[in-house]
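User: Assemble these into one structure.

Assistant: Restating your components, then the assembled model:
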Amino acid sequence: MIWDPYYECMELEQRRELQLRRLREMVARLAVNVPWYQARFAQIDFHPEDLKSLEDLASLPFVSKVELRDNYPLELLACPASEVVRIHSSSGTTGRPIIAGYTAEDINTWAETIARTICCGGGTRHDILQVAYGYGLFTGGLGLHYGGERLGCMVIPMSAGNTARQLMMMRDLGTTILACTPSYALTLADALEEEGVSVEELKLRSGLFGAEPWSEGSRQAVESMLRLSAHDIYGLTEIIGPGVAGECEAKNGLHVFDDHFYPEIIDPDTGQVLPEGQRGELVFTSLTKRAFPLLRFRTRDISALHYEPCSCGRTHARMDRITGRTDDMLIIRGVNVFPSQIEEVLTAVEGVMPHYQLVVTREGRMDQLEVRVEVSADIFSDTVRGLEQVQAQIEEELHKVLGLHAKVSLVEPKSIERSIGKAKRIIDQREAG
Amino acid sequence: MAVQNKLTKQVSVFLENKSGRLLDVCQTIGQARINIRALCIADTSDFGILRLIVDEPDRALATLQQQGFSVGETSVLAVQVPDQPGGLSGVLENLRQHEINVEYMYAFVTPVQGRAVVVFRGGDDQLEPVVEALDAAGVVVMPAQDVYKI
């Protein structure tokens, strides 16, 4: 089912006209309402009426997390503070968080784009939606909640954590759609046996997993363990939260709801816009946001865009699954390493995605990469030789894929910290500078 | 006696080289009232494998699994060896003659009928021919049920 066929299946030309009209209104509004944008436009001698086509957007400067932090908490509001009805905040790991405001209209737009996302994942108003994203300042919980209610699902606002209770509710209420981070979905699947819940007792059929990068290997693991169809969903607090893009049943990239969020892919080093299909940094421009619109926000997420309409009938641009972040990218001895590459290797060697962690250290002037892998029953052997073979095989495959030597350490099951929110996959112990 | 009955179940556990891990395993099976009869540890600089002969191998396996340890079950042979100089070499000589390779071995502390008991695994994971070879040479391979009661 397509939630909003008028906008979601619009002819491409018609959508581009809509995007341009909305973009021009947005830029004009920012030039009047936000002193920071006023100053910025003056600096580069830009006037809103100069914006004649969508391509002209490329002449405008980017906004990054740095500018957002400098304008903490609400300097970039594009509406009177009295119109703001909600605040969310990004999970800033360093320094000040980023505060995003929402007007009533923004909350409405958000519920609409999440309703689209749930429909993309096969949802209807007859579904029972268990929201196991955190509720609160994090956008995941309340975002899915409002979208689920908009669609008419029975929404179970579990929030994240309390795994035993999650599984009890899932079984007793007959949850059909699970929404959480992919790492928490794996945690829930792992806990089934311990909590005495059999997967046969569950009625799950679809999963909406996002808020962190994950691989095809994780998808297969979650799908087989929880017996559902796993869909990747994408969003970020700075733009609105989840509901920016979602995978349909075709699973041929994520549909970007580009009548609200205009996507570009740029070369992260030069800032040049890249053509269709090329991998680079994803950039979003708000087209309809009232309280906290951003022009050309650099997400640091690595993806690619495709414009050919999907077999499902939706005509939105499609983005590739996020393969990493420009800031998650580890540079080890000059080699770019993405955690997703390591996941692919581990999945290939073990058949399933094990829990793992990357530890980067510096010995003298040499970077060292250690990959800690939990020993599952599948790879356990009672001889040292057997285990060393597994170790050597992973090291060899990693060397082929990454082009550098990584030390593989086998660790005990459950010794790598399990996440409720985002997985801590990387420990970088190199001193800065 | 059927060869199958002479395959003793050994429980093996994956251990990281961290202090307290061995204690955790021992506490887990101790609290389940399972008695360790013989053990050995194989270790590298990174990890170790604890191999155990216990009185109730199936329950030990389930208990450890439940506690989240990576465990495995392997068949091994418990062989009676004359408790005198040259006793073990006599047994090993039989194996060499049959070109059977010993993967690992360790001994029980408690003697049985005045003989030492040695646990070993070998023969490239094919234990049945090993049992037959030893039986033919008059070496006593103990029935598993008797081993758990040592």
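Chain A has two domains: 1-326, 330-428.
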